[in-house]
């Protein structure tokens, strides 16, 4: 499983860096990677095919996350960088 901020970033924006760089933010601590998907809040026009591919990748990462929640139009994904999660 991906354990670096850069690897998560590249994996998620691969369907279309042009569109997805506008709505994704990734932060990192020593133990966690936090992904923030603000597509609903920012109301950007993104092609359906890009959204479908992105959501598939995002849901795949949710399987390996500590927490995957939505608050106020932003979906947060918390991924542990430590082994065992």
Structural key phrases:
85 residues; alpha+beta; four-stranded antiparallel beta sheet; 4 strands; globular
Secondary structure elements and pairings:
Blueprint (H helix, E strand, L loop, with lengths): L4 H9 L3 H4 L3 E5 L3 E6 L1 H4 L5 H15 L4 E5 L2 E7 L5
Antiparallel strand pairs: 1-2, 2-4, 3-4
Structure description:
By secondary structure, this protein is an alpha+beta fold. A four-stranded antiparallel β-sheet has the order 1-2-4-3. 38% of the residues lie in helices and 27% in strands. It contains four helices and four strands; from the N terminus they run H-H-E-E-H-H-E-E. It starts with a helix and ends in a 5-residue tail after the last strand. It has helices at 5-13, 17-20, 39-42, 48-62, and strands at 24-28, 32-37, 67-71, 74-80. The protein is globular and about 35 Å long.
Oligomer: single chain
Number of beta strands: 4
Based on helices, strands and strand pairing, what is the structural class?
Answer: alpha+beta
What is the straight-line distance between the termini? 9 Å
Mean pLDDT: 86
The H/E string reads HHEEHHEE
